[in-house]
Amino acid sequence: MKKVPEILTLEEIKKEDIPSVGGKGASLGEMYGIGLPVPRAFVVTAQAFRRFLGETGIEDRLFAGLAGLNVEDNAALEEASKRARELVLSVAIPQHLQKKIRDAYGELGSEPVVAVRSSATAEDLPDASFAGQQETYLNIQGNGDLLLSIQRCWASLYGARAIYYRAKQGFDDRSVNIAVVVQELVEAKKAGVMFTSHPVTGEPLTIIEGSWGLGEAVVSGSVSPDKYVFDQRSGQVVDRLISAKLEMVVPEGKKGTKTIEVPADMQKAPVLTDTEVKELARFGGIAETTYGVPQDLEWAISGKDFYILQSRPITTIRAPVHGKPVAATAGKVLVEGQGASPGIGSGHVAIIRHIKDVGNVKEGDILVAKMTNPDMVPAMRKVAAIVTDEGGMTCHAAIVSRELGTPAVVGTKKATSVLRQGQVVTVDGEKGLVYEGKTEAPPQKEKAVAAVASAPLITATSVKVNVSLPEAASRAAATGADGVGLLRIEHLILGLNKTPMWYIRNKKEEEFITELEGGIRIVLDAFPGKPVWVRTLDAPTDEFRNMAGGEDEPHEHNPMLGWRGIRRDLQSPDQFRLQVEAFKRLWQAGYNNLGIMFPMVSHPDEFIQAKCMMEECGVDVENVTLGIMVEIPASAILIEDFIMAGIKFASFGTNDLIQYTIAVDRNNENVATMYRPKHPAVLKIIDETIQICRDYGVECSICGQAGSDPEMAEWLVEHGISSLSANIDAVAKVRDRVARTEQRMILEAARRVHAREGVQ
Ligand code: PEP
Ligand code: MG
Predict the structure, then answer these.
(1) For a 10 Å CB count at each end of the chain, is N or C smaller?
(2) Across-strand partners of 192?
(3) φ and ψ at residue 282, rounded to 5 degrees
(4) Which residues are paired to 596 by β-bridges?
(5) Reduced DSSP (H G I as helix, E B as strand, rest coil) percent helix, strand, coil of the chain, to 5
């Protein structure tokens, strides 16, 4: 490791210093360097941490304790993590290092209140992200508390989750270090967030949201902030929405914060003057110009001083900013299908005709196949785009591509015959088109589509997110969704490449349970305190056939109507019990936010039977959240009976509900145009089910693809749905539409009252 000082101030940090100061530290240094008013800070570098390990003599013991650890063995992982953390906290920071930290702290002022944040960093992979896995300590004051917090940040590098994540990502623990950012806490009088361009359309409009007190209230969504729109073309504030700001977060004493009521005269008063909006927009402009992409900033104002606290790219923008669509610069259209995952990708065509072809797919290729299946997921991770012959918006390729943020076009009917191996093409996953040639300026693969939510909107209708791959959990959480409305575990299980029956036959049940528990835990950890509805296994027999143990899968004429969902679990109690065991362990570990949802339920008896089987496995069924998918018309027709049987929630699986209501195969491209989510019969079934759930106060949600369509979301809100769950890429736009619809409904109701009162 190169010789770097133990402490670096913001003035000293350069972009290349990520290995020493971590992503957070480097970003602050860079922001300072380009002239943004960043609160003062210093970084205790990764080198300081390694010197601490070396000089205190704990280094070898620490890494020996982690070597060869089986991170899938939960007890061993917890124990190793505990020992490592205790070891780091058991020794004193060397005196010379303590002095440097005290001196740097002294430079910030006379015992100022600071935030102490971890910033983990990998020596050889500076871009690796370990966000959210290590600790942050706010409102720290005085040398004693500061030194202790720094040491605690160091110890948090060995939290169980962090060790697990590194092992899974193939990082050697020795190569991962930790820097600690110590930053003055600004006592904001007003604060908020700012998008330097419109977060959805990319128009040159700066959107600023703000409220009174510390920024937490706006970021966490506990207050309806004011909204200001500044048009960069005219240099004018073109829109202002002043909200009633009822509460604010303020510092409490020297430590901690508290939420108080906003004084009456400030509640409806604008937080920002036009001059302040312009000044903030100016800083936004500096950030966007320097970073080259629109930014999502956090800002604060204290007295006359402006501060920019954080800047990160907005990744919700789907069209290229201020320009014509990228694909328009490419050649002629070669094939057409359904745009299943937004974004644009160019590369060489790699056709998979047989699973053995998967090995030939290279980073940045365009994967072309009849249809994807779970064996292809590793290849799907590295390609620039995916094109299939078959399938619709809810097929395997579509679901997995959306989660991976990889552009995809499905149901082209002929991509594998029209496209040639090695041919260069450009895929537009929004429009469903595949063009000849490469775009003039190759667009960045939009890996991070919707990784950051649009401004926090508060909606009475919860807007949740669907997850299928645990690796997508952090992107899903970054949308700010109100929970997970559907975690499909079959993708996790199919990814193991062995059927549950294989594990049972080979007496490896424990392995299966641990895999399942670990995968679900990653998602639960990404959504602390928010509901996560995990669905029991729902894999049609044809999907199991390619896996080890799949040889015995029955050949069904129509797997969609066959042995899947709860009906299969009830007939295969061993398979069901394995899943329940994983859920039970999570409940026992304190994950009270875990709810379980049964798929393909057609009769209340199936729900009752599943509940009884869970009880036999030792689950306290009355005190956990159990619900059903409404995806067979029968379950909608009998919804009242299900409520009597004790469901705590119902969620429309419209992908199936539509196909079973209007008899149109969801995966058959020949009838794709007849697959109509808004078919009047489908809408009628949904409406009637919602009304009955409302009568009984049972949460009614949607997790099918239709819930990701803003128009459908509007209809559902108008008809009284309690929550929606959308794909990662759709959360922001759905939330936006839900908010607008709710506001419109309130306004219309108020106008009606007003009109009535006016008449009287
Ligand atoms: C549905 O049917 O709408 C659903 C969400 O389940 P899946 O797509 O997994 O069948
Ligand atoms: Mg379904």
Answers:
(1) C
(2) 210, 299
(3) -65, -45
(4) 534, 626
(5) 45, 20, 35
* 342 touches 318 (CB < 8 A): yes
Q: Ligand 1 centroid to 654 CA: how many Å?
A: 7
Q: Which residues line ligand 1 (CB under 6 A)?
A: 394, 486, 488, 538, 631, 653-656, 703-704
Q: What b-and-e string marks burial along 410-419, b requiring 16 or more CB atoms within 10 Å of the CB?
A: bbbbebbeeb
The single-letter code of the amino acid at 396 is H
Do residues 360 and 379 make contact, with C-beta atoms less than 8 angstroms apart? no
Instruction: Report the predicted TM-score, pTM, of the whole model to 2 decimal places.
Output: 0.56
pLDDT, tens digit, 9 for 90 and up, residues 704-755: 999 999 999 999 999 999 999 999 989 999 999 999 999 899 888 888 888 7
What does the alpha-carbon distance between residue 49 and residue 21 come to, in Å, rounded to a whole number? Answer: 11
Catalytic residue among 198, 396, 491, 693: 396
What local confidence, expressed as pLDDT, does residue 244 receive? 79
Helices (H), 215-366: 216-220, 264-267, 274-291
Mind listing the pLDDT tens digit for each residue in 292-347?
778 888 899 999 999 998 887 765 443 332 223 344 345 788 999 888 888 889 99
Question: In angstroms, rounded to a whole number, what is the distance separating the alpha carbons of residues 731 and 616?
Answer: 38
Number of H helices and E strands in the chain, helices first, is: 27, 29
Catalytic residue list contains 396: yes
Q: What distance in angstroms lies between residue 653's CA and the mean position of ligand 2's atoms?
A: 5
Express each pLDDT in 77-94 by its tens digit: 889 999 999 999 999 999
Check 395, 693, 700, 703 and give the catalytic one: 703
List CB contacts of 684: < 8 A, sequence separation 6 or more: none
